[in-house]
Amino acid sequence: MQFSALTWRLAAVMFTHRSDAAAMFPADEGDALRRLRDQERVVRPVLELHRVQKIHSLGAGLLIEFRDAQDAAECVIDLQQRTHEQVVREEDR
């Protein structure tokens, strides 16, 4: 292998997962799927705002690649704020 042929780049990677995912499905699969769809509606627009490179969906989690650490950090803050708002809405139901 010739190292001169390789292209190197730096990327920031984030993994997200719902901490309640394991408990959601046995209790009520329909409700769990609804919550995951609700989460998707919250998360996807935020990711689009923060220049996400790649997204891999892993059940109740996401593996996300960003161009740089600043995009990743700003996205994490935004995601946590919006996710918190979603949890509060779910608790009010």
Give the topology, please.
Blueprint: E1 12-17, H1 21-27, H2 29-49, E2 52-58, E3 61-66, H3 69-92
Antiparallel strand pairs: 1-3, 2-3
Task: Outline the structure in words.
It is built from 3 helices and 3 strands; from the N terminus they run βααββα. With 93 residues, the chain is α+β, with helices and mostly antiparallel strands. The chain has one domain (12-92): 2-Layer Sandwich (Alpha-Beta Plaits), CATH 3.30.70. The protein has a 3-stranded antiparallel sheet with strand order 1-3-2. α1 packs antiparallel against α2. It starts with 11 loop residues before the first strand and ends with a helix. The mean pLDDT is 80.
Short description:
The chain has 93 residues and is an alpha+beta fold. Helix content is 56%, strand content 20%.
Q: Which tags fit this structure?
A:
93 residues, alpha+beta, Alpha-Beta Plaits, 3-stranded antiparallel beta sheet, 3 helices, 3 strands
